[in-house]
Amino acid sequence: MKVRIDIMLKNGVLDPQGKAIGHALGTLGFAGVEDVRVGKTIFVTTSETDAAQALAAGKAMAEKILANLVIEDFIVTVV
User: Fold this and answer.
1) Which of 65, 62, 64 is nearest to 77 (CA)?
2) Distance CA 1, CA 12 (A)
3) Fewest CB within 10 A of the end CB: N or C in the chain?
4) Domains and CATH numbers, the chain
5) In a 3-state reduction of DSSP, which class is residue 58?
């Protein structure tokens, strides 16, 4: 079963990569862009056959190693 883990910086945490992309988009003529935030998506294939267990495993992975819980939030979904 595949698990998708989306990790984003928490609101209020400075996102220099997002700022750089937003500036570049403005320079390229995309005037309507107000804010850009950059995150990461991780796909994990597990041997779990139960969706609830796969979801729990993905959450544990994010909490223990994949996300920095001080500055990042995450969402886990089974795909």
Assistant:
1) 62
2) 34
3) C
4) 2-78 (3.30.1280.10)
5) helix
